[in-house]
Each structure stands twice: as C-alpha cells, then as structure tokens.
Amino acid sequence: MSKVSSKCKVRSEMEIDDPEKNPPGSMYWAKVGSHPWWPCMIYNSPNGEGFYRMLKSCPKYHVQFFGPVVERAWVSSFNLIHFKTRKKLESQLQDLCKAWPGLKSKYELKVPNQRLKWWDQSWKEADKAYCLSLEERVNTYGRLNAPPEKHALKAEEEAELLKMMDSVPLTLDEETESIETFVQVEKTRRMLLNANLNELELDNALRIQWPAFDIATKRSYLSNKLEMLNLESEFKMDHSRTTRGAGRKSVLSTDESSGMKPTPKANKSDKPKKQKPREKLELDLEIHRLIASPAPFRFQPVCPVCEVYSSAPGQMLKCNGPCGRIVHPRCMRYKEPPKPENQRPEIFKCPQCLTQKYLCAVCGDSSKKTNTDDQLLPCQMKGCGRHFHRGCLAQHPGVVLADTLSRCPAHVCATCCLEDPDNVVVDPNRPMLQCVRCPRVYHTGDLCTPAGSVEVSLSHIVCPAHFSSQLSEDQHYKTQWPAWCFACLKAGADRVFCKTCPFNYHRTCLPEDEQVGVSEESTFTCKNCRQHIEPRYAQVVWAKIPFFRWWPCEIIHARNAPLNIFNLAHPEGTFLIHFIGSGEYQWVCRAQTFPYECGLNTSAAVLAKSNSKKDVAFNLSAKMAPKVHEFYVNYVWKRGIPLRSMSATRLSDEELVPLSTPETAIALGLTPHQDTDAVQLAEALSSFQQVVSNQYANSALEKLAKQELPETKCDCAKSETETHCSKETECRNASEGIECTDQVCSVLAHNPSVDCGNRPFSVQPSLAVFRTTNRGFGLKVLENVKEGSFVVEFMGEVIGVEEANRRLEASIAARAAHRGHQGSTSQSRFTSETMPTTYLIRFTPELVIDAEKLGNLARFVNHSCEPNLVAKLWNVRGTLRMGLFALSPLSEQDELTLDYQQANLLDSSFVGNRNICLCGADSCQGSLHLPSSFHCPEKAKNATPAVASKSNEKGADQVVEVQVVEEPKSKRGRKSAGGGANMSQLLSAAASVDVKPQKKVVAVPTVGPSPKVVETKPSKKSSHDDFCYR
Q1: How would you classify the pairing of strands 523-524 and 495-498?
Q2: What is the pLDDT of residue 233?
Q3: 118 and 198 together in one domain
Q4: Which residue did the predictor score with more confidence, 679 or 114?
Q5: Residue in 445, 602, 455 with CA at minimum distance from that of residue 537
Q6: 786 and 886 in contact (C-beta within 8 Å)?
Q7: Secondary structure of 681-723 in the HEC alphabet?
Q8: Residue 623 burial (C-beta neighbours within 10 Å; 0-12, 13-18, 19+)
Q9: Do 731 and 647 fall into the same domain?
C-alpha cells in the first residue's frame, strides 16, 4: 500500500470512520466524481437503510447536500472533509495538498461557471446551518426521517412481550393504525356475508364500537405490535380469526343462534391491499383538506402603502372620500400639509381624495390626457371609488367598459371570470379575497386563489403575477420548455417560446390568438400569461425541476406543507408541489409547470421502461395522476366553481362519497350533516372518561391541592342591612375565593338551610356540546347566566408540571410528525377531531389539570380573543378547584369561550407560529403563540399552595400575578439523558419555534393566603401594532 493511501486511511479512521461521533446532522465537505467540493450533512437514507455502511474497502456515509435542489448520495469517508465554514475551506484544502501531494488535483477547489451560483447558495446555506445545533440543523434542513433499524423477534418471544404489554395503552399512531385495520378487515368480512349492508353506516358503527375494546384486542390489529419498543415481529396476526378468546370478538359479531359458522380464514382476495389505501390517500389528500378546512376569512384591512395590517384599534383610518380605503395616516404623503382636523376619523381623507387628483388603480399614475387610453375613468359601481386608465384595463377580466366604466375588475372573481366570462355573477355581499397591489379579487376558500399568492392578512393577498419578473431573473426558477410544440405535440425546430411559462409553438402552428406581439425573435408572451391565468391549489400539473423529467404533481397549499418543507427558503411567488406517487416536495413557480391535460399524448406521459426506483415511482405517478385530476375537477364542479379549461368524467354523488373524507362529504352536501355530527359527537364523548371530581395521580399531589380554611367565620351575619355573602357586601370569603360552609360562614352557621349566595360550585347551568363551523366541537349554555356567575368546573387528572410538559411535548411532536409525513398511511388519517391535542390548564404553581383522558364537558370550551368566561381558583371545603365564571351576561345558546393565554391553558394546536386563530372576534390577534411548556417554579421549602388565581373581569379587581419568564434557549433543542437527540423533542422544538424570540407571559397563581392585586400590563408596541402573515 502506498504511503499516501495509508495516510488517507489513517486520517479517515481517526476522524470520520466512527459513526457514533458522526450522527445525523454532522457537516462535511464532500467530493463526488468530477463535482466540486460541496457542503453536506450526514442524514438518514430515505429507504430506511440508515446513514452508515461498512464496506470492505472503506465505510460510507449517506449525506444530503445543501443547496436549492436537495440531492443525496452515499459518499466514502475518504471523500469527506470536516466542514468549518466557507472561509476555512481553502486553508483546509491547502493543508491536505501539502500532506498528500499525490492527490493535489483532488484537493483543488474548482467550481464550474454554470454551477457557481448554486455552489455559492449552497455554502451560504451551510454556513447558516453550521451555527445551529444538531437537533436544529436536522429539523431545519432535513428532508426525511428514516425509521431506525428494528430488532426482529420470534413468535414465542413476541407472545411473552405482548402479555406484558396488555396493560400498556396504545400510542396515538398505533391507535390510528389499529382502528383503520379493524374497520377495513371487519367491513370486508361483513360485506361478503351480507352484500346489502350500507358501507358508510357499517363503517360508522364499527368506529363507534372501537372504544369498547380492551388494549390487547386493539394491539392485535397492529402490523408491528412492538413498535413502541423499537422491535420488529416475525409473527403476523391473522385479523380474520379470534386468537384472544372473548376479548378479541367484535361487538358487532353475529349471533351464534343464527347458525352462522365461525369466520373462515380470509383468502388473499379478502386481505386489504397495501397499495390501494396509499393511492386513495395520496389522490384526495390536498383537495379534501382545502374543501373540509378552507383558509379562514375575516376582513382585515391592509394599508396599500406599507402592505401591513394593524390589529390595534385606531391605528388605521378609513378615508371619507370617494376611494373609501383604510390606511395608516402616517403612510400618507401629502404635497401640502393638510389641516389638523384631517386627522380626525370622522373627516379623514387620503391625499387623492383631498386634492381630487386620483391615480390609476393598476399603474399608479395620474391622467396624462395625451390620448384616449390615458384618460382616468371612475368605476360606476356603488361604493367603489377606483379610477383606471382605459388602456390599463385591457388584460383584466370582468370589465364592463364602453363610454364609461360600468364595472371594474374589483367586483368579480378573476379566476371564475377567466373560466366563464359569459356567466359572471356579481354579489356585493359576498366576501372576496383582495390583492393589495392590483384590483383583482378572488372567491374565498382556496379553490379560486392562484397558487403562489402571498397572504398579507386573512382578507388580502399579493397575487403571484407581481413576482413573475423577479422570479424570471432567478436561475433556480427559470422557465422550463418541453421538447414539443403545444399545438401539434411534436418536436421540431423553428419554435417560439413564451417568456414566462413552458408554452411554445412551431411558427407554423402558432394559433391566431397567440400571434399578438410575436416578432422575428424566438420569444413572446402567450395569451395565458398576458391574462395572468395562474395555476390553482390542489390542481394537477406537470412540473419540471433541474435534472429530473416532467412529473405529474399536485399543488399543495403552504399551510398543509410538511414542517421541514415549509421552513425551506423560497422566494415570494413560488408554491409547493407534491410529486404524485412519492413522498417528495419542491418549491416551484409558474414557469416550471403547465396544466395536466396539456401534457397527455406527449413524451412527458410515456412510461419508463427501466426498473430503477425513480422510474418505478414515475410509472406509479403516471397511473395515479388521471384519478387525481378526475377527482379535482369533479370536486371543483361540485363546489359550483366554473371550470371550462379542464375536462373529466363526471362522477355522481354516490361515486364521490366513498372517495371523500367525512368532513369533505359534509362540506359538499354529499352526506347529511346531522347524521355525521351525531356519530362524531358520540365519538368525541367516548374519547374520554367523564369524572365528577378531580382525579389525582398520587397522594402527594393531592396534598398540594389542599388549602387551610380560615379559623374564623365571616361577619356577614352581623350586617344590619343584609345577611348575604358577596363582594358587594365585602364578604371575606367571596373576596378571597372561598366557598361558604357552616365552618367559615356566619350566615350558614346561624341557619344552614339558607342560601348565603356564595356557594357557586353547588349549582351549574345546563350545558351542551355542539359542532362549530370551523373549530371542531364547542360548548354552549342552554339557559341565561348572569355576569360573574359560575358556569362549569374544569376537571381532569391532576398531575405535576414536569409530567404536563412531557405530555405537551409528546403531543407537539405527534402534530409535527403528521405535518412532516403527510404522505404516510398512518399519519394521513388525522382529521380536525383526531389530530393530537392537549387539554392542560395551570392549576397551581406545582399542579396542572389534564382533561385529555379524564375530564368533563369543560374540555370542549374553545379559545377566543374576546372570551365570555374566566378561570378562577376557589377553595371549596379545604380543596382547591378550578371554576369557569361568566365575564358578561350569557344568553341561551351562547357558545362558551376562554382566553387560553390568560387562563394559561396550553393546547398543542396553538403552539407555534403557523397556527391561525379562528375565533372571529373583532380584536382577534390573528395567531395565538402559546408557550411550548409550563414554567417550572423552584420548589421553596414550606411553600403553601395558592389560595386563588383570578383573571381580569369587568368591574372586578385583578388578582392574577403575571410573571414574564423568558424561555431558556436550552429548552428549544433539549437533549435526552444519554446525550443523543430525542425525536419527540426535535419535532416539538420544530413545531413550537417562533420567527422572533419573545418573552412568554405565564400566569402563575399568587402564593399565600392573601393574594395581591397585580396589574397586567401589555407588552410594549411599536408605533402601530402591525401584523403581517408574510
């Protein structure tokens, strides 16, 4: 062996050959073939092979390269150099050249000019990743989470372990997998026995009966029953036969007296096929989500100058002139200072209306009066006030223009008008999604919204047409042209190409409507681009990214993107696509996609003949894409949206029901709303065990909830005016949150049968659970309730703060895993009701109430930024109890709401910066950033639990002590005891990370018998309280 190679081997063995010292996330420079040294990080292989291979010659690591296009490779340890930022790379290579002169060509840094921009972007991205911890790096830049290798067990070993796990509850993923397997197997078996059964009703009946099964029965339906222990089983359960006696029988099994024979072993045709459910979930996932959970809409005006929505009252003023715009007064630029009275809201006018010198709503210029096209025309629609140049309206749909402008583009949906211009419907009362930079508007609900739109507020966007010019200058999003003509579908020379989309034609095939602006040059702007016809969310398109062929894809809305894909850097105007038939996603722009039907009968749709993984995935995608497209078109038709540019076979309601999720079927009117609500309500009520008092995890925690009662009685019986206990009579018990008994109340001690007026927990109004419009289930009151009256007690399992943080972290991790693996079978079954969530509310500084498994109806109380309930701690017979009291008078059928942040109720649904508040209140903050954990106070000696923790109420004193606690940085990426990365902690940190670190407000009940009155001060705001989804 040569001296050089031996040195290389020694160096690699000392530094890179130990996989324990190089876990996923470790950064290196990698040399692959003739490519330059490229920054990368060690990461798990997407096919589950891990990240390390030990070959005969040398070890290999699986790496993921940084850069705009995510690429992976197995790289020998000889071709890896530790990453120490871009500045130190050249010195590293020089040192290696001196040590091994024979490999000088290998250690030279040569970057081809055509890849220089990509390389620069890659090392800049790597420099940012180098500053992160391993956990943060993997979470931010990792694309796949490969499952760890599992140790296989024999049948007898598994049976022994399963017997020990009969009392261990299933995880959320296991519960989801087992119920789906049970429903599928039982439904198949029963439909074979009785073909007249209603499949939908049978499905619902099986799901209702599922909670009655014991743990052993549920676990028997898992494909890997020892997944929790990271073990693999060789013994597979036959779901068609009973193996655990009576506990394994289905509740819906037929009566033995009917002469029915025992269920035979299911043959191969009865067994559920693995590919079928996967195809169904990938086919209908995005369109189902957009229909069942559309984007929330609430009018939030955006200043047209700074493009920012301000939520604070009084920061934005409405112009009292013809335009009627809502703007920031400080953003207005007046040529001459207006009168001071102009700042008053009732007479405020913008510069245009004040001077009556209006600007065009398209180009932003005033009238030049040089020709007819430059004349400003006001829109004649009532309350519009917009002005346009005649020439600026040429490429905008929905315009009614003759001598006057009867209707401008701001009154009809641009998408619907482009699809069906002859049947335009104008509904002034229907809310519209407005573009901030142009007069175009769109119907709410995502299906009309152009893909790539930037959300500025819940009612305003910036449509992608305004980003096309800057995207065309980006080399990563340059226009991709196919090799065929879009008219004759054949290849050939002498073609003209659209500048901003893949459309191209032979000059002899160019349609008449495309000949506008075509010169001797080889580029032009097609009709679709001139009219700004954009792709839409959930639409099926052909997409092309560098080094890959044209692939059928489904456009995904950003809010439905996996968390790690969502966090990838991407310019404004791009949108996310999902490669059908795979688990891959990519950010692209309009210049890289074209409609699905335009690619049929071309070379793009030709199946691959090789057996490589990429070609097999493409063939699967090509077979699934027609179904995806057919479902999308039918759902859009069913929604009542015009769609002439696409065609598909019309499916009846009966054909759509089996293909739809329950939420989608309800939204489309395919199934009765009441029937589905009744089934889901039964499931919601059966998902937890109702209790009549708090259940403590252990006796030590129960002692912490005990509170000594006063040794003396109140003085209310000595009052000369009225013998009544209340705050109005300055009763000590009522003021300090102590429920009256004959031990502490002088009125009851004198006459126990009298109602002293301070026994709130003894009487509760009638309540009912109901389905809300877009927030799952809620709780409403069935009778009138006075202000300050007791409504309901929040009950559940009382646990410690550390245990509560552990449960919260696990729930956040489960939600993050769902977002990161939406293509997997088990994770895709989550709905708004089955998504993992928490019901944790701060009880005392040491205790938390968890109502997830044990609780009462109070767990259904939803959040609101303008709540009608407030949480208070009361001392009831020496034990602390959490009550919800009315902040204002409640009428019959009013929904009960609570401010989660003020009550310190942590719901994993609201942790993180991607969750939007749907309360609909006028003062809604738009997004509720709850902390990712409860603050753990130091356990002081002889510390007594809190007497009361009362929040702000109208006309009452404030008795909540609010401590501002900054979350330690170590909590954002915690490590396990062994020093390795815990996946649940990684996912939890990823889901709860905020864009801007900020101090978190934690409401901690005041400790001691005499609570102090502490004023809750809002955090400092800037000049105006700005909020922008961008």
Answers
A1: parallel
A2: 52
A3: no
A4: 114
A5: 445
A6: yes
A7: HHHHHHCCEECCCCEECCHHHHHHCECCCCCCCCCHHHCCCCC
A8: middle
A9: no
**567-590 confidence digits (pLDDT tens):** 788 899 999 999 988 878 899 999
Same-domain pairing of 626 and 488: yes
Side chain identity, residue 902: Q
pLDDT at 676: 59
Q: What is the pLDDT of residues 495-531, one digit of tens each?
A: 899 988 999 999 888 887 777 667 677 888 888 888 8
Is there a single domain that holds both residue 740 and residue 652? no
Q: Evaluate whether residue 371 is within a structural domain.
A: no
242 lies in a domain?
no
When pLDDT is cut at 50, 70 and 90, the band that residue 153 belongs to is low
**Which long-range contacts link 229-233 to residues 24+ away (Cβ below 8 Å)?**
229/161, 230/148, 230/150, 230/151, 231/150, 231/151, 231/152, 231/153, 231/161, 232/150, 232/151, 232/152, 232/153, 233/152, 233/153, 233/158
> CA angle at residue 133 from 128 to 136, to 5 degrees?
80
Hey, how many other C-beta atoms are within 10 angstroms of the C-beta on 180? 17
d(CA 278, CA 159): 30
Domain ranges, residue 117: 8-141
Averaged over 790-811, what is the pLDDT? 89
| Better pLDDT: 31 or 10 | 31
Q: Kindly state the tokens that stand for 987.
A: 């996912």
Per-residue pLDDT, averaged over 194-223, amounts to 77
Q: Across the chain, what does the average pLDDT equal?
A: 75
Query: What pLDDT is attached to residue 299?
Result: 86
**Number of structural domains found in the chain:** 4
Task: Indicate whether 79 belongs to any domain.
Answer: yes
> Do 645 and 608 belong to one domain?
yes
Nearest to 243 by CA among 205, 217, 210, 206: 217
Task: Give all strands (DSSP E) within 580-703, no chain letters.
Answer: 585-588, 593-595, 689-690, 695-696
The single-letter code of the amino acid at 484 is W
Work out whether strand 695-696 and strand 796-800 pair parallel, antiparallel, or are unpaired: parallel
CA–CA distance, 851 with 838 (Å, rounded to integer): 8
For the chain, what's the residue count?
A: 1030
B/e letters for 290-326, b = 16+ CB within 10 Å, e = fewer, are bbbbbbbebebbbbbebbbbbbeeebbbebbbbbebb
**How many Å apart are CA 993 and CA 925, to the nearest integer?**
18
Q: Say yes or no: 20 and 86 in one domain.
A: yes
Instruction: Report pLDDT digits (tens) over 353-406.
Output: 988 888 888 888 886 555 655 778 899 888 888 989 888 888 888 898 888 888
More confident residue, 698 or 1014: 698
Three-state secondary structure string covering 192-250: HHCCCCCHHHHHHHHHHHHHHCCHHHHHCCCCCCCHHHCEEECCCCCCCCCCCHHHHCC
Q: 735 and 881 share a domain? A: yes
- Would the pLDDT of 52 be above 70? yes
For residues 131 and 206, membership in a common domain is answered with no
**% of the chain residues with pLDDT over 90:** 15
The neighbouring-strand residues paired with 460 are 434
| 338 CA to centre of own chain | 46
pLDDT band with cut points at 50, 70 and 90 for residue 156:
low
CB 459 within 8 A of CB 448: no
Section 262-285 average pLDDT? 41
For 312-376, the DSSP string reads: STTSSEE--SSS--EE-GGG---SSPPPGGGGSTTT---HHHHHT----TTT------SSGGG-E
48 C-beta neighbours (distance < 10 Å), count: 12
